[in-house]
Amino acid sequence: MTLFGGASSSEDSSGIGNSTPTESFYYRTLNLLQEAIFLLDGKGRITFANARALQWLGGSSKDLLGRHFYECPWTIVRTIGMPFQEDTFLEKITGEEGGSFPDLEIVTASGVSFSASLKFDHIKTEDGQTSHILLSFFDETNRKKVQSYNLQLAAAINDTADAVFITSLDGNIEFVNPAFEKLTGYSLGEIRGSSPNQLKSGLQDQSFYKRLWETILKGETFRATVINKKKNGDLFHCDQTISSTKDSTGKIISFVSILKDVTEEMEMQRTLRVTSERLRSLLDNALEGIFAVYNRQVIYGNPAFFKMLGYDPDSSSSLIRVADILADRDQRNALNGILSETGKIQGEEVRLLKKDGSPFYGTLRVFAHSQNPDYLEGFLLDQTERKMIETEKDSYESILRRSQKLESIGLIAAAMIHEINNPLTIVLGYSNLLAKSLVDLKLLKYVDIISSEADRLSRLVKDLLLYAKGDGTSFERVDPYRLRDEALTLAFPLLQIEKIKVEEGQERESLPLILCQSQKIKQVLLNLLLNAKDALCTEATENKFLGIDVVGIKGESGIVEKIRFEVWDSGPGVPQFIRNTIFDAFFTAKESRGTGLGLAISKKIVESHHGSIGLAEKSGKFSRFYFELPIDCKTPI
Length: 637
Description:
Its EC number is 2.7.13.3. This protein is α+β, with helices and mostly antiparallel strands.
């Protein structure tokens, strides 16, 4: 039997042979198809196989033509895994005039497996009899892969917790996933074909949506946090992402929107923000200083902390180092030791330095971070007022004890001022009258001795009263160089008479003003200068000089914390055996020329300013007395 009135199974491998031009055209067309085409006769023998079929089977038409279809080197199985029943297959394709097998798996002789579908049709003669059966196999491998991918993608979209909806190019909703339905309250049936405008809350203006459309129509992704409205009218916050989908030519065909519900996160942020603002308000208004330190640098302080230390809270936190405010090395080392051992400091009293160098007293509590010991958090309670009260109390107690010890001296001094001053005045008055009326030189000498001793006795009584009482002038800020210069001015006439040269030490430097009782400090300087003069007058030498100097003493932070005054002379020096007693009351090395109270009074004045006084030189020639005063001394001892 022939097909198209031409080639039979005995013709050449092209299947064309001596066919007519029309038949040749049909053959060539069949060979160009991507489907595998087989022609079977009524007995199931292959009469034609196109190029695609030969490619599948891996042979030539000469090997296949005339063979029964089931003798081909391949296996056909159902994709569901059931073996393919040849009898059933043959019965169907021969008994029915047309039909299909949609899910087949073809395994070739070489072991290659692919998915395929089959369509079959009967070719009939003019009298209606079946002459051939046309089998068309379609390779479904790629379609199956795409279908599998689409199924996976659809499952992912349906299972995702984020709401997803797809719109057409003109913005009408075509698909929503279950998460969208749950979030918005709209079902797919309710919202399909509608505009997403139903979700608008009215809280985004037109410029927002204009920017949205401009972005997605350019094929770019739009992202924003949006407030939308549910079906029941409730508002919800979401992070929205809109992307375009394109066809194979790059043309935009739809838009995919993903809504991530962030309502709870936004509410948590709002709550956190309110809580943070309340906490900051508490910190800002707390009376206790609160601070944080990292790597020995203050990184946070509340207003109370900066106010305590005299810093501007808006600009100074980055400038404060721990060493600037905790300048005492011994105290700092002690606190570091406690921190290293226990990880915290509980209620330690500290002395800090304020920005202007004045002292600040407080109670310190510090906690080290368990994971990072360089990070510290702490609290500082102002104890300055309490410290001042305690200091004042100690001062009063000290004065009381001193007063009790000197009670007898005070009584004697009071009696002396009453009983001695009047006779002394008379003695001094009459001695002056005698000096004016006498011409006898010997008698004049005696009168001069009487006047001199009476004057010395008067000064002794005054010094004794000053030592016992200890009160003084008010405190004021004064230039340390001014104190030095005024003391030198007072002593200069006496130094000039004795031909004593004066050295002023180092060049002047910029020193802070010192808070002190200026008259009393000048009294100390004058006393040291006159003591130096007296020491120089004990030796007959032409090269007599003394010096006076003022220097600033800096703390570890580099700030001047104390002022040091020094007075030295080129005299014989202070003997070693009296060095420990020269500041005792009534001790004198000047025999009959001193009261023994000058250095004792000077020591008392310096210590009342929280300072120290001493003798700096070694035994031997030259002596150097010094005293040091803090910059601020608002609470005298």
